[in-house]
Specification:
Layout (H helix, E strand, L loop, with lengths): L1 H20 L2 E4 L17 H6 L3 E2 L9 E2 L2 E4 L5 H13 L12
Antiparallel strand pairs: 1-4, 2-3
Length: about 100
């Protein structure tokens, strides 16, 4: 029982620290109806991009120059942590017990 608790706590701590270490990235992939206007009518693509905004004039009735949105970067090492856990379960030294489940 103690090994399972320790294993889970270590895994949670590792994932939490990994996600806290990651920053955010901006993307221009925004649904047209969620765009926040970043420019004035008649702004050119270069003027819009100079302001650090996104430009897309393919959809009528929504801002063409709009703010990018922040998205979380996937934590690095997340896949390797998951794979490490799988390898541990497939080996004889499974920290989750002989059956591999609590």
């Amino acid at each position: 029982m103690e090994h399972r608790v320790i294993y889970v706590l270590v895994l949670v701590c590792a994932l939490t620290l990994s996600s806290l270490a990651q920053g955010q990235q901006e993307t221009c992939t925004v649904a047209p109806h969620h765009r926040d206007n970043c420019g004035s009518p008649g702004i050119t693509p270069s003027q819009c991009k100079d302001k650090g905004c996104c430009f897309d004039n393919t959809v009528r009735g929504v801002p063409w120059c709009y703010y990018p949105v922040a998205v979380d970067n996937p934590p690095e090492g997340m896949a390797s942590v998951a794979l490490w856990g799988l390898r541990m379960q497939n080996q004889g030294g499974n920290p989750m017990g002989a059956q591999g489940s609590p």
